[in-house]
Amino acid sequence: MRRFVRLTPLALLCGCTSPPPAPAVPPAWNVHGSRFAGAALAGASAFTGPTSSVSPGCDLQLTVLALSAMPPGDALAAHAAVITRANQPKPLGGHPRSLQDVRVVHETAVVEQAVAAARARWHYNLDLAPDTTTTVNVREVGRTVGPALLLRSERDGCHLALVADDGEQVLLDGTWDPAAPLLLAVPQERADCAGVGLLLQAGTAIDAPMLDVDPERDVAALTDVSRQRLMPPDTRALTLRAQAAAFTTLVGERQRRPALLGLCLRVGAVRCADLALVADEPTLAALAQRVQTLGIDPARADAALAFDLERLAFLALTPELQRDTLPPRLAAFLTRHAGAAGRNAGELEAAIAAATDEASLRAALTATNERALHDSDPAVRVRANDWLARRGIVVPAYDPLGERTARRTALQAFERQRTTVPETGR
Description:
Layout: H1 9-15, E1 30-37, E2 58-67, E3 74-75, E4 80-85, E5 103-105, H2 108-117, E6 120-128, E7 132-140, E8 143-154, E9 157-163, E10 168-172, E11 182-187, E12 195-202, H3 215-228, H4 235-249, H5 253-267, H6 270-278, H7 281-294, H8 302-315, H9 318-323, H10 328-338, H11 345-354, H12 358-372, H13 378-390, H14 404-420
Antiparallel strand pairs: 1-7, 2-6, 2-12, 3-5, 4-10, 5-11, 7-8, 8-9, 9-10, 11-12
């Protein structure tokens, strides 16, 4: 005879269901800072401390968040200027891989909501010293949580980069204005939070401690980290090779322009960087081909590489200059950087051919513009006079639109004065 046991709804509820899981404990993270000389993606060099430079310092508030949910925001790819990958056959990337899910949040309301809902928060004040890059790492026992954040203060703002565990490095385009809050949200597959949030704001919080940054302690550690995690030992060479490779591995103005700017700013090629800002796509392509043909040798000094780029910037425009087909903005570039020589292809090529470095190029352009003060064309004289005046070379009583006799008298007096009073430099 079979017996049936009748279970009440209460018995079913109490005996056949498991108890609800306990809420996850917020993560226990530590935040560490380090500092090194050099730009964000240029790698660590021996720390020398702040130097006298045009680069200012900057005081920031850093808040590390254990996010309860990933906030809406832009994909990191939309803000990436340069993407490099260590120890890869093609060190330059077109899109982030390891960091592809990182979100960039600018909207104040979304940032405030993410902060209010965070599982845990860590507040710090951060002092960005001039001429150095500061690295921020979030850590827990046995491992690093999320990518490293690299910050460098410059006159035009704060440069930011993220570096993943596998060596992928993403330099954000442009600069971040500290007047506006910025949240970088990095997703994490874990039970205690949805991701790591790195919130940057301007100013100093009274109740927050200063992030511990000890350069003397960290320089050795950073060298080891750069070898194992952040960057290979020859990061400068890798970065230069990657930026030079942009001209053959990337297509389109949107990617070629920041790649060229990154290369120029890395070595200090001011004229070439200016051309990258104003040039159209065909001009960028022509310059890219010249750079690729020349080749970038990372073993050479930055000044030598900068001179090569400056020279190529001029030479990329001489074909159109000879044909008199330069668009106005490129003609203005040549006038701005070469004066009267920038309107004469023969004079410009001669000045470039006579130069072996930046100083000799500047001297050759100066001599060409001084000769142009005698030209019969008033437009040539005006360009030459303006270019020289911007560089501190002024001929007393000389008016490029004045009478010929008065101009000649002023130039002769200037030459006599220069032969009796040696120049201190140009």
